[in-house]
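OP here, attaching both records as promised.
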Amino acid sequence: MQEQAGSSRSGDRAVLHLRAGRLLKGDLLDFSPTAETVRLKPESEKSGSDPAPLAVKVSDLKAIYYVRSLDGNRQYKKKRYFGSIETKGKRIMVRFKDGEILCGFVEGELPWKEGFLTLPDPRLKGFFLHPADPEGNNTKVFVVTTAVEDVRRL
């Protein structure tokens, strides 16, 4: 089964980046690339209370970052090159409308062609990118296409 059409497993650690710049951290309860919303169980508050699950519209998102840790590692210097990584997929650069740039790999056809979205299924809200840095905190990213300015093959 190709990941593009797959759903996320319940419990995947994720950081939702909203277009407005806000971040939501927690465990995904469910997500599908064709869904209108994503459900997230936010990380527990320091007060010990268990926050209620959130439903966030995919149209409000820039991307879903699947992470190893919700805290990350501020000391880690992210690699911004591909190096000698052996992986399946095409090397791409994604530039979001807010200026952020991600480099990584996509499987299958490129999701962008000369400025036009070319996802294989028009119901898909985006595509998965596997980051170029295999040691970074992000394990994969679901890129919401309406938040993208450009995609380039490298």
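Record two, same layout:
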Amino acid sequence: MDIIFIDDLRVSTLIGIYPREKAMPQTVEMSLQIGTSTASAGTSDEISDTIDYAAVVDRLRSELATQHFNLLEKLAEYVATLLLTEFGATWVRVSIAKLGMMRGVRRVGVVIERSRPA
């Protein structure tokens, strides 16, 4: 399996359980590893034969701009499911972090791995 990766993507979304978090979008940082075969694209040199990382970024930015999630875990599941079902990934690792949420802590977050059902 090959991996397409997107590191340190910053996206604005409503995330959190506190009233201020439900009212004001926050920037979250996410890194994605997307498992797929890139053999066809390596032969054809055509974007249609792989997962277009620009399309992934555009889709995530537009989707997350209109959503609210209480927990980072739910957001990570949402992203993983989107990559598996709509972009055809066979496996994903999704890392999502809130920035500067706690005094003396740079980032807090979650990392999940999911695979498409066999």
